[in-house]
Amino acid sequence: MTKYILHGGASSKKTPNNKNFYKEILDGLKDSVAILCIYFANDKSKWETKFKQEQERFTSASPALDINFIMASDEI
Fold it and tell me: Which pTM value belongs to this model?
């Protein structure tokens, strides 16, 4: 199943809405899931930090779910 959820930004702030955002993304998914993280709009020097932060947020939203995180590359 493919699920698309768009967020306007500022998901790094610790707010109830952002916590619900991460939970909604994972809601209804079972077993294992792959999440593609795309940071092209950010400075490349920040990609790795953002990737680690996203991993922490998703994992805390659903600790029992097996999540395969993939960071998109700008290399062709």
Answer: 0.79
Q: Over the range 7-46, which residues count as b (16 or more CB within 10 Å of their CB) and which as e?
A: eeeeeeeeeeebeebbeebbeeeeeebeeeeebeeeeeee
At 67 the three-state DSSP class reads strand
SS3 18: helix
* Structure tokens, 5: 């959820």
CA distances from 3 to 21, 36, 44, 48 (A): 13, 12, 26, 24
Element (H or E) spanning 34, and its range? strand 32-37
Residues found in the chain: 76
**pLDDT < 50 regions, the chain:** none
